[in-house]
Write a structure and sequence with these properties.
Rossmann fold; Aminopeptidase; 18 helices
């Protein structure tokens, strides 16, 4: 296996482990920090919730960050150039029978992607169009500033996952969904974090600038790659500033702080999820657009480029925000609306959808569909809980197959398992979706992927611009599936004389010429 520092025994053991495998190709460096590693770990956490397993593929020494990785296997590769990097990753993916590779790094660009080839499905992380032209299956840009115009040059089958709806959060944040921040009249606890390496030394500058502000309690996060860590600890001695090194309980720490001063990177989206008012400093070129977007949305205040930020700028910004409860409240509300904590599940849903098959509903599916629809759980979750008679079902089924304004598909897995049926009633440029799953697969979390796969197919085959779904309020599992499939919740409606949850999905930009 060229360029791969890995034993055959490790490959065999991981290959035979149950659950689909996601390989995460990323590196850590002093200059580029640990943000790529953090968001790859967040994707791995979401993949695990869907029953999958993950492994890292890297040229870096990840030992300093083992506390973050929760025992995930790490495969070191030693390529001589970018071409060998892609080939080594592809060889590893084939040897381990990986379902997906997710590549996160600005050097994994338009030259790396074609060299990776079709070893398996490929997701590419992107922040500013660096990988153009794209030939991956999925391109993920989780920044609020994400713009489809960055991706005009891409393969016709490359789909885009754009914006903070797809913000990736590590698993520790899941327990905080539904939590609401309390806004104090005066903020006291300030979170300070500038990434795992802080290459420009902002943390030490912040300590020097802020340590004399009365009653300010700062919680400083210092990563394993920060070469100034000992100097920061010394500078905080005898102050109200506390240093946290190699933090694993980041969600709890963010929630305990009243506001934050940080770089506009991955942690910024975690802070937004926990409705944290933020002051941002850009310490890398790729952070500028994110800082501007968060400021424009009222989520944060941006102080701009780090070298242009003075000690007085830091003092004034922190002092003004800590004393302005009304402004912090508005920031907190805007942040919570931007990042809802389901981003990782939405990304994984689209990945799983790519593994599913669809075939048209046919006469041989009549009995199977009747049995699924009459399953007690299905009846309990429907608008009408009464059992469906065979006679009524036969008439309904014949009408469905004969309706030119309908599309109905049977969804299946790669292994040939029949998962469920999705059908659409089409009226001009809108459609209404209905779904029923085989009871044997409801507990495997595949409902969202089936919805996403069928919705993508409908947009590809028709001129429909918007899909609607009406769901019984008691069917919380189905509501969750539509949220993960990317549908947006609208105001409740009344259908068939009953109240219904209402979700819609707009046609995405899917063509390379858009």
């Amino acid at each position: 296996m060229s360029g791969v520092a890995n034993t055959n025994r490790e490959v065999v053991n991981e290959r035979d482990h149950p659950g689909p495998l996601l390989l995460l190709r990323t590196d850590v460096s002093f200059q580029h920090g640990t943000g790529h590693l953090m968001r790859c770990k967040a994707l791995a956490d979401s993949w695990a919730r869907a029953g999958g397993r993950s492994g890292f593929v890297t040229t870096s020494d990840l030992d300093p960050y083992r506390s973050w990785l929760d025992g995930i296997n790490v495969h070191r590769i030693e390529p001589r150039d970018l071409l060998e990097d892609a080939e080594a990753t592809a060889e590893l993916a084939v040897a381990l029978r990986a379902s997906w590779v997710a590549a996160d790094g600005y050097h994994l660009d338009a030259h790396w992607q074609p060299a990776f080839g079709g070893a398996c499905r490929l997701l590419v992380f992107d922040d500013y169009g660096h990988g153009s032209p794209f030939c991956a299956d999925l391109v993920l840009n989780q920044n609020p500033s994400a713009d489809a115009a960055l991706y005009r040059q891409r393969h016709s089958e490359t789909d885009l996952l754009l914006g903070a709806r797809y913000a990736l959060l590590r698993s520790q944040f899941s327990a905080w969904r539904g939590w609401k921040r309390t806004i104090l009249p005066e903020a006291r606890r300030l979170l300070v974090t500038f990434g795992g390496t802080d290459p420009v030394g902002m943390t030490l500058r912040v300590v020097d600038a802020l340590r004399d502000i009365p009653d300010l309690e700062a919680q400083l996060v210092v990563g394993g790659g920060n070469v100034l860590a000992e100097r920061i600890v010394e500078a905080c001695a005898g102050t109200r500033f506390q240093v946290h090194r190699n933090v694993t309980a980041m969600a709890e720490l963010i929630a305990s702080c009243d506001f934050a001063l940080c770089a506009s990177g991955s942690t910024t989206l975690e802070c937004a999820f926990l409705q944290t008012p933020q002051i941002l400093v850009s310490v890398a070129d790729n952070q500028r657009a994110l800082a501007d977007a968060l400021a424009a949305a009222g989520v944060a205040e941006s102080l701009g480029w780090h070298s242009n930020v003075s000690a007085q700028d830091l003092i004034q910004a922190v002092t003004n925000l800590r004393e302005d409860a009304s402004r912090r409240s508005a920031m907190s509300l805007a942040a919570g609306e931007m990042v809802d904590g389901l981003g990782g599940d939405r990304v994984v849903c689209q990945m799983l959808a790519r593994t599913l098959t669809l075939r048209p509903l046919g006469p041989g599916d009549q009995e199977r569909l009747w049995l699924w629809a009459n399953d007690p759980q299905a009846r309990a979750a429907s608008f009408s809980g009464a059992p469906i008679s065979w006679e009524n079902h036969v008439h309904w089924f014949a009408a469905l197959l004969g309706n030119p304004g309908a599309r109905a598909w049977i969804a299946g897995s790669e292994a040939g398992e029949v998962l469920g049926c999705v059908r659409f009633t089409i009226e001009e440029e809108t459609a209404i979706l209905s779904i029923v799953l085989d009871p044997a697969f409801r507990s495997r979390g595949l409902g969202a992927a089936v919805i996403a796969r069928a919705s993508r197919a409908l947009f590809a085959e028709t001129e429909v611009d918007q899909i609607h779904a009406h769901i019984s309020p008691s069917n919380r599992a189905c509501v969750s599936d539509f949220e993960k499939a990317g549908y947006a919740q609208q105001d409740a409606v009344t259908t068939q004389f009953e109240a219904a949850e209402h979700f819609t999905l707009q046609r995405p930009i899917t063509r390379a010429t858009d």
